[in-house]
Each structure stands twice: as structure tokens, then as C-alpha cells.
């Protein structure tokens, strides 16, 4: 049960519904970011395996992760990330074959982005929450 003073704040509209859910559940709110330019619905309906064309995109894009131009490296990372989670096995294979430190670093970061759970955000009460001992 929430402290009465927090319930009052929520009832008065001072807090959002998300805060109510997070506090009443006593849990963190997790959000998974979808890269800019990627349709969330499309990202969720990505097939389990890459198509032949997508594998070709990976083959041509991986070397660009080590390009001299920062913008080109970032574009390559975004392109690979845009292929969704099915790209992970191809990235892991490319990682085994690479010797360039920048490419290996970026491949590792991409693999980690797909395989680790998203970070969580914990909403803590503000400083006026004296009764619950958090402020």
C-alpha cells in the first residue's frame, strides 16, 4: 500500500499514472528503446533469420564500422542495429573474423545491445516523502 500522502498527490494529478503503477508494484519500469527511424511494430515482427539480401547488407556494412569518418561508422552501426535481433549470429561470426579494434568494439556493443536486458528506470519518491523514509 502506498503512503497516504503519495496517494493524495496522485489523486490531485501531481503524479502520473506511471508513477502510481511503479510505486504500487514496488518495481522498476523498464523501457526498451527502438532506434530512431525504426518502426517499433516492424522491429517486433522481425523474422527469426536474416534474408539473403540482409546477409549481404551485413557483409558490406561491417567493414564500415572501422571507417575513418565517424559519421560513416555511426551510420554502419545504425544500419546493422536496424536489422533487428536476427542479426546477432552474423555479428558474432563477423566478430570472430575481425582484427580491427574499432570494428570489434562496435560489433561487441551491437551484440550486447541485442542480448542484454534493457536498463531499468527506478522512480523514487521526491524529497517530500518523509513518511516512507526515502526523502
Q: How would you concisely characterize the structure shown here?
A:
The chain contains seven helices and two strands, in the order ααβαααααβ.
Give the SSE map.
Layout: H1 4-11, H2 17-25, E1 29-30, H3 40-44, H4 52-61, H5 70-82, H6 88-97, H7 101-115, E2 120-121
Antiparallel strand pairs: 1-2
Helix pairs in contact: 6-7
Textual characterization of the structure:
The chain is mainly α and 135 residues long. It folds into two domains: 4-31 and 119-132, no CATH class; 40-115, no CATH class. It is built from seven helices and two strands, in the order ααβαααααβ. It has helices at 4-11, 17-25, 40-44, 52-61, 70-82, 88-97, 101-115, and strands at residues 29-30, 120-121. It has a two-stranded antiparallel ribbon. Helix 6 (88-97) packs antiparallel against helix 7 (101-115). The radius of gyration is 21 Å and the shape is elongated. Mean pLDDT is 75; it is low at 14-38.
Keywords:
single chain; 135 residues; mainly alpha; 2 domains; two-stranded antiparallel ribbon; 7 helices; 3% strand
Shape category: elongated
Helical residue percent?
A: 40-55%
Average pLDDT figure: 75
Helix and strand pattern = HHEHHHHHE
Number of domains: 2
Strand content: under 5%
How large is the count of helical segments? 7
SSE class: mainly alpha
Q: Are there runs of 5+ residues with pLDDT below 50, and where? A: 14-38
Distance between the termini: 18 Å
Going across the biggest sheet, name each strand in turn: 1-2
C-alpha Rg (nearest Å): 21 Å
Count all strands and give the number.
Answer: 2
**How can the largest sheet be summarized?**
2 strands, antiparallel
Amino acid at each position: 500500500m502506498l503512503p497516504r500522502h503519495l496517494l493524495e498527490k496522485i489523486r490531485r494529478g501531481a503524479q502520473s499514472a506511471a508513477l502510481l503503477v511503479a510505486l504500487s508494484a514496488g518495481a522498476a519500469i523498464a523501457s526498451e528503446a527502438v532506434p530512431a527511424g525504426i518502426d517499433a511494430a516492424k522491429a517486433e515482427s522481425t523474422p527469426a533469420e536474416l534474408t539473403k539480401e540482409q546477409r549481404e547488407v551485413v557483409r558490406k556494412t561491417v567493414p564500415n564500422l572501422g571507417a575513418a569518418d565517424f559519421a560513416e561508422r555511426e551510420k554502419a552501426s545504425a544500419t546493422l542495429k536496424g536489422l533487428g535481433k536476427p542479426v546477432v549470429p552474423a555479428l558474432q561470426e563477423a566478430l570472430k573474423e575481425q582484427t580491427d579494434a574499432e570494428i570489434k568494439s562496435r560489433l561487441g556493443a551491437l551484440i550486447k545491445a541485442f542480448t542484454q536486458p534493457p536498463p531499468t528506470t527506478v522512480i523514487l519518491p521526491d524529497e517530500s516523502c518523509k513518511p516512507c523514509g526515502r526523502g
